[in-house]
Amino acid sequence: MSTLSADTLVPQDLIARAATDPHRPAFHFTAPAGWLNDPNGLTQWNGEYHLFYQLNPYAPVHARIHWGHAVSSDLVTWRDLPVALIPSAGADVDGCWSGVLVDDGGTPTLVYSGRHGERELPCVATGSADLVHWTKDAANPVIPALPDGFDVVAFRDHCVWREGGRWRQLIGAGIRGEGGTAFLYESDDLRTWSFVGPLLVGDSDDRPEGAPDWTGTMWECVDFFSLDGTATGIPGAGGADILVFSAWDDGVTHHPLYWTGRYEGNRFVPEALRRLDLGGRYFYAPQSMRDDAGRRVMFGWLQEGRPDAAAVAAGWSGVMSLPRVVSANPDGSLHQEPAPEVASLREARLRSLTSVLGIEPVEVVRGDQLDLELQLTIPDGGIATVQLRATDDGAERTVLRLTRRGAHAELTLDRSRSSLDPEVDASGRAGEVPLDEAGRANLRILVDHSALEVFVGGVPLTARVYPTRTDALGVRLAGQGVTAEVTAWSMRAAARTAEVQAG
User: Fold this and answer.
1) 191: exposed, middle or buried (C-beta count within 10 Å: 0-12, 13-18, 19+)?
2) pTM over 0.90
3) Pick from 242, 367, 401, 476: most CB atoms within 10 A?
4) How many angstroms separate the CA atoms of 437 and 484, rounded?
5) How many Å apart are CA 304 and CA 247, to the nearest integer?
């Protein structure tokens, strides 16, 4: 019997439609077609990187989720492996939702949320040495009920680590009338779990709904780790302790946030709450891993910004972010940048220049698969603009603006003219970014058809854009008295191959 891979499960007509969609990224990871959302089970196993992800192979809608699986030696070029988890009779009949992979004494083990009707409860599956074949535990769900004494809004997604000879687990949840939380459990064997209590509880009333740092009524996709180059990366191991979560409310995904603080016993003592990505829901449900080099590597889900009907017509939905390396700044905030491996996709250097800009925009390069490095020296109070995916007449254009205010700048993303399609999301994004000691803004901009990832001084802003015209390729710069140093590369598509192995 053959083991099914994503491309053998996905209907061929979906794959054909997806291949012709001009909005489909070329060097970001996507499913062969159908629906993709959260990254799952991130690990480096026997030297290779494994990316599992939420997948509906049959249609680009969020329903009856499977676990897709891909592997890479370099974090950017992937080959498809057989689908790891498929819904089956029992605890996950309606979907195998998000989770993690841990090494249980040499046995690869998945801890994930099984969905049965409206119930979402933790399940376990063990894998073969090559991570290709997976066997679900007969006792699933391994936590058969919600914790007593709490009016739980929702209960799903997992973060699991080894601490003091025992397993510990966080499950994302919400307590009605109070706020989002991460429930803490512990176990000797990954099957029998004892409830410890809430690690931390948010305040659902602490910000008005819609504010970019509102913590929501439920925390999805909790990720908990320590940042210290000499530590193991587990919470409390040394360095800054980081609790990442995605704010959710009443079925609506909002934005990813993170707490910095101290993990003490069974509680997390928060110090500061920050935004993980200025793009909000366009970098959602992130998960990270510590690789063999000791780096904290993170992926997130780039949601669609076009109507569901457009994604269905295109045959696909959802993009995985490029891999990011996450480290700690001196002030405790996170510094994020594309993994160095992303540069291996650079093809031809298209432009390298230094120029003093003026009010009128100047085109510096053209393309929809680009890697741009810019250093902008902006006078205090001055404004620099970068137009992306701009048509020749400017009817479509996505505009980044940097307004300098002393040692920082306000970064805004203006998508009001990103597309002539009135149904796509055109809302703006904004936030503060750092400048270097000389007052320069250092930007890395990755343009991949509809996917846009921007990094300014280690602060990311992720978004989706959907220009309708084929000449929406221009990159233009402007800014009175702004000095710009620009280097631009075209980017090759990240090759992928299907790999179906006999079962």
Assistant:
1) middle
2) yes
3) 242
4) 17
5) 17
- Residue 375 makes CB contacts below 8 A (sequence gap 6+) with 440, 441, 442, 443, 484, 485
What value does the mean pLDDT of the chain take?
A: 95
Asked if residue 68 lies in contact with residue 86, where contact means CB atoms within 8 angstroms, the answer is no
> Which residues is 425 bridged to in the sheet?
none
**Owner of token pair 């000449």:** 471
* 138, amino acid identity: A
Over residues 415-470, the pLDDT tens digits come to 999 999 999 999 999 999 999 988 899 999 999 999 999 999 999 999 999 999 99
pLDDT tens, residue by residue, 280-313 = 999 999 999 999 999 999 999 999 999 999 999 9
Contact 291, 299 (CB under 8 A): no
DSSP 419-475: -S-TTS----EEEEEE--TTSEEEEEEEEETTEEEEEETTEEEEEE----STTTTEE
List the one residue out of 125, 154, 143 whose CA is nearest residue 67.
125
Sheet holding 459-464: strands in order across?
346-356, 483-491, 369-377, 440-448, 451-456, 459-464
Instruction: Give the H or E element holding residue 8.
Output: helix 6-9
CA distance 312 to 309: 5
Q: Name the token pair of 322.
A: 């490029």
Residue with tokens 């489909």: 24
Residue type, 265: G
Largest Cα–Cα separation, the chain: 68
DSSP letter, residue 47: T
Asked whether the predicted pLDDT for residue 256 surpasses 60, the reply is yes
- Higher pLDDT pick, 159 / 228: 159
Among residues 450, 378, 444, 370, the alpha carbon closest in space to that of 415 is found at 450
Torsion 86-88-94-97 (CA) sign? negative
Distances (CA, A) of 87 to 95, 116, 132: 5, 10, 16
